[in-house]
Design a protein that fits this description.
Elements: H1 3-11, E1 16-20, H2 26-35, E2 39-43, H3 47-54, H4 67-76, E3 80-83, E4 94-97, H5 112-122, E5 130-133, H6 141-154, E6 163-166, H7 176-182, E7 185-189, H8 192-202, E8 210-213, H9 215-246, H10 250-257, H11 280-286, H12 297-306, H13 308-322, E9 331-335, H14 350-358, E10 364-368, H15 379-383, E11 388-391, H16 403-409, E12 414-417, H17 424-430, E13 433-436
Parallel strand pairs: 1-2, 1-4, 2-3, 4-5, 5-6, 7-8, 9-10, 9-11, 11-12, 12-13
Antiparallel strand pairs: 6-7
Helix pairs in contact: 1-8, 2-4, 5-6, 9-11, 9-12, 13-14
The protein binds ligand SAJ.
Residues 170-173, 225-226, 229, 233, 266-267, 269, 272-274, 276-277, 339-340 line the site of ligand SAJ.
């Protein structure tokens, strides 16, 4: 089928769609495509997830407004079916790939899931099919890995027998469905005609800009937008560390800096977690490895942000020292285990990093998190027999922390605030030995 024919079939909703990977990117995407009038075949390797989806139940935890309803109506309409069998894609004409693309502990991309998806898809790749990768990719990967794998395993030629593009996802936990409609997207097609056809598909559910480009540009935009955020956060964290040593208050400094035009200083904090920001900067810099560019700023920003849980440990040591309590043998209450405020998502949680650093020091942790089932409950009860409390996540329920009760519950009244949750004067008036990230302890 030609691309103009494909565009006509997209506009008339006759085209069959496939989505490979039914996680926090693929599942909402499949639901939104059904809402837009398409019939969608979802593919996932996890049998339990496929069974849940075919029963109209979402396997995605956390508060995702509208997702459960969108899934059950998609399933009840008979226009969404999930399977573990790639053979179910043999009749579809457009396939979107949304599998994980993590980095390993050496910060190198791990494309096993992507390679496996492409190899399996190639076996059912039909002439005229359009393949779109939504997973975040290191610049150059669409051409160097996806195109080559599909061509080698199918014997078909990209641009002639099948079409290929990259449209990076822009999902945000807590706003998965809303973002799919409201966020602009970059449609990176291997040919301008392919990009135009991608725009036609995304226009069926996206109300924002759809910018046609080539795959490399799309890969660079996505990895850059997250590397940008990581560098901005690292700047805020470095200013926080400077303020602690020179006696400033980074939170007041930030507020006043941002009154200056064109300034948008981000928030310092106890660490940078999640599935995007810690990973995407490495996908960006990896593309330049051995090719002449030597990124310094972006890897250094990662180093600054990754050091923040250890900085929280240092703040704790200083406060315990003032309380004449040794870290070895201490038990501390960690307030917040999710990586993000008001989320239950714990991927790359800075709290987890901090807790791992406690053990070699001979200390232990008790965790509280109102959004995570095994850690919710009465935090004051959890504080009993603890020698300190540390704020790692600015969850909304913590905004009404009762400092008096917390102080009497703790064995030692030490409080370390990594998210500017507590007013320092109020903490000290309550009798805490208090440390606040970004503020002098003097
Ligand atoms: N963080 C800070 N200071 C800040 C902002 C964030 O310390 O000023 C920390 C958070 O506590 C968290 C981590 O960084 O641990 C990541 O926070 P995030 O707000 O960036 O949330 P994410 O990881 O869900 O990022 C996603 C990204 N979206 C995509 O990749 C499609 C990111 O590009 C978005 O900017 C972000 O959502 C968003 O704005 O919600």
């Amino acid at each position: 089928m030609s691309l103009p024919d494909l565009r006509n079939r997209i506009e008339s909703r006759q085209v069959g769609l496939g989505v490979i990977g039914l996680g926090y990117v693929g599942l909402p995407l499949a639901c939104v495509l059904v809402e837009a009038g398409f019939t969608v075949t979802g593919i996932d390797l996890v049998h339990e997830r496929v069974a849940l989806i075919n029963a109209g139940r979402s396997p995605i935890e956390g508060n995702e407004p509208g997702l459960a309803d969108a899934l059950s109506s998609a399933r009840n309409s008979g226009k969404l079916r999930a399977s573990t069998d790639y053979g179910e894609l043999s009749e579809v004409e457009v396939v979107l790939i949304a599998v994980e693309t993590p980095v390993d502990d050496r910060h190198m991309p791990d494309y096993r899931a992507l390679t496996s998806a492409c190899t399996s898809l190639a076996k059912v790749l039909n002439p005229g099919m359009l393949v779109i990768v939504e997973s975040t990719l290191s610049p150059g990967t669409t051409e160097d890995l996806v195109r080559k794998t599909l061509e080698a395993a199918s014997g078909l030629l990209c641009g002639i027998d099948f079409y290929l593009g990259h449209c990076p996802e822009r999902v945000m936990p807590g706003r998965l469905l809303q973002n799919l409609h409201e966020m602009s997207r970059v449609c990176g097609g291997t040919t301008p005609e392919t990009a135009r056809t991608m725009v036609a598909l995304y226009r069926t559910f996206v109300d924002a800009d759809l910018d046609a480009a080539d795959p490399l540009t799309a890969e660079l935009v996505k990895t850059c937008e997250n590397a940008y955020r990581d560098v901005q956060i690292a700047f805020a964290n470095e200013v926080a560390l400077i303020c602690e040593t020179v006696g400033g208050d980074v939170w007041q400094v930030r507020e006043l800096v941002n009154k200056s035009p064109l300034r948008q200083m981000h928030l310092p904090g106890a660490g940078v977690g999640g599935h995007c920001i810690p990973k995407d900067p490495w996908l960006l810099t990896n593309s330049a490895l051995g090719k002449g560019a030597h990124p310094i700023l972006i890897p250094t920003a990662r180093e600054v942000n990754d050091s923040m849980p250890e900085h929280m440990l240092n703040l704790l040591k200083g406060a315990l020292n003032e309380a004449n309590v040794t870290l070895s043998g201490a038990k501390v209450l960690v307030l917040g285990y999710a990586y993000l405020q008001d989320s239950d998502d714990t991927r790359n949680s800075p709290s987890a990093t901090f807790i791992q650093q406690l053990e070699p020091a001979g200390a232990s942790a008790v965790i509280h998190d109102p959004y995570i089932p095994e850690y919710r409950g009465d935090l004051y009860q959890r504080a009993e027999n603890c020698d300190a409390a540390l704020v790692f996540v600015r969850h909304t329920p913590y905004q009404v922390l009762d400092l008096e009760i917390l102080k009497t519950s703790l064995r030692v009244p030490v409080l370390v605030d990594g998210r500017n949750l507590v007013d320092p004067e109020r903490a000290r008036r309550t009798g805490f030995i208090f440390r606040s990230l970004g503020r002098s302890s003097r």
